[in-house]
Description:
Blueprint: H1 9-19, H2 23-30, H3 47-57, H4 62-85
Amino acid sequence: xxxxxxxxxxxxxxxxxxxxxxxxxxxxxxxxxxxxxxxxxxxxxxxxxxxxxxxxxxxxxxxxxxxxxxxxxxxxxxxxxxxxxxxxxxxxx
Length: 93
């Protein structure tokens, strides 16, 4: 992070999936205890794919990266809207 940001548990957790590293390993590298900070709710379900996406994006032009980011934002918004409009499960008695 080029000394502009101090490594915090939140930053390390956020970048762990992109780096495809275990969070505890990043804590050790950063000089933080492995149990530092609150635990997350579980592993991100697309860790491998996120790393692959970052690797592929690193070869794109700045304009292409902007398009990729915009597309991802649209997909995220669409998935939120889909969840909001899903019918509630009906329980059978």
